[in-house]
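To assess whether ligand presence alters the predicted conformation, the chain was also submitted together with heme C. Input:
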Amino acid sequence: MAQRYLLLLGSLFLGSQFLGSQFLGSLFPGSQFLASPFLGSTAAADETVSYYKQVRPIFQARCQGCHQPAKASGDYVMTTFEQLLKGGESEETAIKPQDSAGSYLVDLITPDAEGKFEMPQGQNAKPLHETEIALIRRWIDAGAIDDTPANARQLFTAENPPQYSLPPVVSSLDFSPDGKLLAVTGFH
Ligand code: HEC
C-alpha cells in the first residue's frame, strides 16, 4: 500500500513538471503539500526581479543615451539610483517604490490605446517590449530595491575624481575630426 502511494506521488511529481500545480490542485483541492517548493511549478511572475541584472540593462540600452550627466534630457539622470527614482524637470517622482501605477516613468513608457508612448524618444524609437515593461513594474511593486553589489558601484565621478599618487599611464590619445574632443585612455 505504502509503495503504491509512493508510486502515485512519483507520477504526480512528474506530471507536475508538465501540467503545473493547477492540475495537482484539481486533484487535491486545498491540499497543503501543493505549496511545497519541490512540487509547484514556480511561476516566473513570483521571482524577484533584480535591478542590477534585469532592469538596469534595459535602462542602459534604451534610456541612458539621453539621460546621463553629460546629456540629461528633461533634466533627468538615470545613471545614479537616487536620481533615477527622483525624476527630472517635471518634478514628478519618476519611480515610487511599491507603486508602479503611480510612477511617472511607467506612465511614459507604457503605450496608450493607440500604441503611442512618450519614452524612449528619438527617431524611429520603438517602445520597450511588453515583457520589459512588466519586469520594470514588478521591480517597482516589490519596492524598487537597488541590489547593485558593492564592488560594482561606480567609485569615481566627475565630482569625485580619483587621486593619483603617480602620473597615470596614458596608452593612447586621439582627437575627433573636428578637433573638439580629445579622448584619453586611462585607468582608475
Ligand atoms: C533620444 C532621447 C531620449 C531617450 C532615448 C529617452 N528619453 Fe526620456 N526624455 C527625453 C527628453 C528630451 C525628455 C524631456 C521631456 C520631453 O521632451 O518629453 C525626456 C524626459 C523623460 C522623463 C521625464 C523627466 C521629468 O521629470 O521631466 C522621464 C521619466 C524619461 N524621460 C524616461 C525615459 C525612459 C525610462 C527612457 C528609456 C525607456 C527614456 N526616457 C529614453 C529624451 C529621451
